[in-house]
Amino acid sequence: MIVCVAVVGHQNNPLYLQSFTEADDALKLHHIVHCSLDVVDERVNNPKKSGPTLNETFLGMLYPTENYKVYGYLTNTKVKFLMVTTDLDVKDADVRSFFRRFHAAYVDAVSNPFHVPGKKITSKAFAERVSGIVKSFGPVTTG
């Protein structure tokens, strides 16, 4: 179901990017994640266009493709969370629940006194926690 998750900094710098699929698809998924950042910027900078209000963190579906859908979430510090899924009919409540758990894992990771703000997240504990969240959301696709 979930094939890729990403954490992108407020200056669109990638902080964490993990694919849960074959290596052949990883580059394509990274491209899809980066393309969806334009949609995030558009929704944040033009909130009047059927987008979320300024205080809402869930951005909804950002970028549908033939095989994938990208959902987004924006923190108060302008850090973006992105999820790429193959499931074409995901409920918003499930996606919101995923992002709340993903955000909590991120907060725990960056609260580490050895983490440098704005740098990539290299914590193995964070990677394991994210993998657990993804697995609990649905079966991980392997191809």
TrEMBL record:
> Keywords, A to Z?
Endoplasmic reticulum, ER-Golgi transport, Golgi apparatus, Transport
A GO BP term, please? endoplasmic reticulum to Golgi vesicle-mediated transport
Transport keyword on record: yes
- Give the location in the cell: Endoplasmic reticulum; Golgi apparatus, cis-Golgi network; Golgi apparatus
Q: Which SUPFAM superfamilies match?
A: SNARE-like
Determine if Transport is one of this entry's keywords. yes
One GO cellular component term:
nucleus
The record ties this protein, via InterPro entries, to: Longin-like_dom_sf (IPR011012), Sedlin (IPR006722), TRAPPC (IPR007233), TRAPPC2L (IPR044760)
- What does the similarity note say? Belongs to the TRAPP small subunits family. Sedlin subfamily.
Could you describe the subunit structure of this protein?
Part of the multisubunit transport protein particle (TRAPP) complex.
Protein name as annotated? Trafficking protein particle complex subunit
